[in-house]
Design a protein that fits this description.
By secondary structure, the chain is of the alpha/beta class. It is 37% helix and 15% strand. α2 packs across α6. The chain is globular, with a radius of gyration of 19 Å. The protein starts with a helix and ends with a helix.
Length: 186
Amino acid sequence: MKKSFSIVFVVLTFLTTFQVQAEEGNMSGKKALVAYFSASGVTAGVADRLAKAIGADLFEIKPVQVYTDADLDWRDKQSRSSVEMNDRASRPAIASKVGNMAQYDVVFVGFPIWWYREPSIIDTFMESYDFTGKTIVPFATSGSSGIGDSGKNMQALAPNAKVLEGKRFAKGVPADELKAWASERL
């Protein structure tokens, strides 16, 4: 009797743990990373909700030289962001690297839309790693601009990866919407 009770207890514990993992995170068996660049904090909020919703690791793509408000003034053709975006070869330096990119199967890459595409620092990120065999999923934040050719650009920078079609999200996108979208890509 005691042995039967122990077996039932172990099975129930396993099932309960499995259920909690299924509700809280990624059950696809794939290890995911949410990497993001955020100039104003909007993309950071979406990336944080996404990572928590799917049980992924989170990595901020930080520039060595932080963008000031003047750098981000898109109306000024001489602002740092305007100059970078007008030069397709521009590669702003990144302050740190992902410790072990090889462990990830799926990498969600988030960014604000700049000039209808990904910021140049995302191009730096894409060229900094070997994404061979990985799935890359772009996501962007913007009040109204679409994601444009960002996915195509990222595919060209990581030709041995599978870059899926990305999606633009508004600032206040709920975690359950992010989870439903991301789960289809895991």
